[in-house]
């Protein structure tokens, strides 16, 4: 967790110093997400959580690969942090028109008390202990919002039953 926080801070600092900001390229999102799934598998297993990825025939996307991977790492980190043992985290890549919808969902800890507005506004930094008292600094979600916007769309969140879902869209490569 500390490694990812430091990685986030360094990438954000580099991005702030760089005048152009984002470096767009064509890449295989399905392969990148699958690689992240394997990286997070031991952490999820340690907490007795199932990670599932749902993706079928996803075309390559045109986006800043590093920013997209940072978004996914943070969303998966948070999902693991806030999922109780025995829960399931789902990463879904779905083609919708000329975009790919990217989502990470997990069971919400206390859905009726969840304030989605605090998760939607990137300027609000909230650090809440996870289900096993994991700590954070409240920067990850803010970076996710910033980088989703830099790649064309905003990061959004919704409740679907008792599951919380974070999602954003990426342009399909031409």
Tell me the layout of helices and strands.
Layout: H1 2-17, E1 24-27, H2 29-46, E2 50-55, E3 61-64, H3 65-81, E4 88-96, E5 99-107, H4 116-120, H5 140-150, E6 156-160, E7 163-172
Parallel strand pairs: 2-4
Antiparallel strand pairs: 1-3, 3-7, 4-5, 5-7, 6-7
Helix pairs in contact: 2-3, 3-5
Structure explained in plain terms:
The protein has 174 residues and is α+β, with helices and mostly antiparallel strands. The chain has one domain (2-10, 23-172): Heat Shock Protein 90 (2-Layer Sandwich). It is built from five helices and seven strands. α2 (29-46) runs parallel beside α3 and α3 runs antiparallel to α5. It is globular. The chain starts with a helix and ends with a strand. The model has no long low-confidence stretch (mean pLDDT 83).
What's this model, at a glance?
The protein is of the alpha+beta class. Helix content is 39%, strand content 27%. It has a single domain, classed as Histidine kinase-like ATPase, C-terminal domain (Heat Shock Protein 90, 2-Layer Sandwich), CATH 3.30.565.10.
The CATH class is identified as Alpha Beta
Order of helices and strands: HEHEEHEEHHEE
Strand fraction equals 25-35%
Number of domains: 1
Helical percentage: 25-40%
State the CATH topology.
Heat Shock Protein 90
What is the number of E strands? 7
**Spatial separation of the terminal alpha carbons:** 36 Å
CATH superfamily: Histidine kinase-like ATPase, C-terminal domain
Major sheet: size, sense and barrel closure? 7 strands, mixed
* Total helical segments: 5
* Gross CATH architecture: 2-Layer Sandwich
